[in-house]
């Protein structure tokens, strides 16, 4: 036991050692911080209930609508409790919970619906206390955030002012200045004036410069919301990058098994060779066992086996809004039997051999049956035999197949996997001969 701790025992002294008080305070802060991180809950989004009972203010349009689209008439000005508010102004909005402070929003655009409801699209600001700064923040400073919502004009309390505080040209010198309030933008707190400097990324608790988003083509100026554009881009990045199924991640560039009926090939498969039927008028005395040959069954035949899975490479992953499922855009791989050579091409070919193709298709993610690996033979560090035996679900290709010309070609450089690029040990083994002439040779054989 430390000497300080011994002197600070309650029974030994009615006073508390200041050193121990500081130590206990530090320990309590660490415990509180640990509990706060474990019990952290995301801040609830700003929500205004779409109920007519929530309306508190008188609303009256000023002037004629800017334009009318379907069931909406867009306006640029409105009177809220006889106070004129224009598109682009900032306002205070009544929250659903009266115990909470009023919300601060920017009016992006306003409209009246066909049923008479008067609405506006709001971009919300956050108080500093709602960020990671907590109560240590400036009560007059607010932060931009990527949250927007359609809400009622009648929920607006009044107009307010939110000033953009630009960083000083000598901001790097202000840190040690005795007068740290020299760049103060609000002299008197009137309850309706605020300022902002940064955009707040809540997921990472990070403050950044406010983003600038250009208006896309086709989006009119009177209903353009840069926040909606960023949220849509974020949504696309999340859904197009990858997805999970049965705790397995599927991302662009991966090769997958697909149900046979999910994609088709441009080449109509050749029928298997027909067997010569046995003669029925055989002499039973000379051929007493002829009845045993009446069936077409051949021992070891795979003609009645179901088709193998299709193999494809994921190009992109998309998910549209609503209840529609995930869609995959894929590039097809041909098996030898899927080419113009037909089923006979697979009799002596390697079971793991594929042909690259530029043909694309869009399939439902529900048709995915698992993942596999497809590599370019010349990019392997080992022979194709060692590669195939090194693990399950491994395939390779040496050539690309072009169904329009029924020819085999060198695969494009984009088909090669640079992460597997090796010393070319597999190069030259079974390399295609006379590329682009295979179809002509086949035609001559058929003609002969």
TrEMBL record:
Residues 26-54, 404-448 are annotated as: Disordered. Residues 83-211, 290-412 form the BAH domain. This is DNA (Cytosine-5)-methytransferase 1. It holds the Pfam family BAH. It comes from Stichopus japonicus. Residues 42-54, 422-436 have a biased composition (Basic residues). InterPro entries: BAH_dom, BAH_sf, C5-Methyltransferase. Keywords: Transferase. One of its GO terms (molecular function) is DNA (cytosine-5-)-methyltransferase activity. Residues 437-448 have a biased composition (Basic and acidic residues).
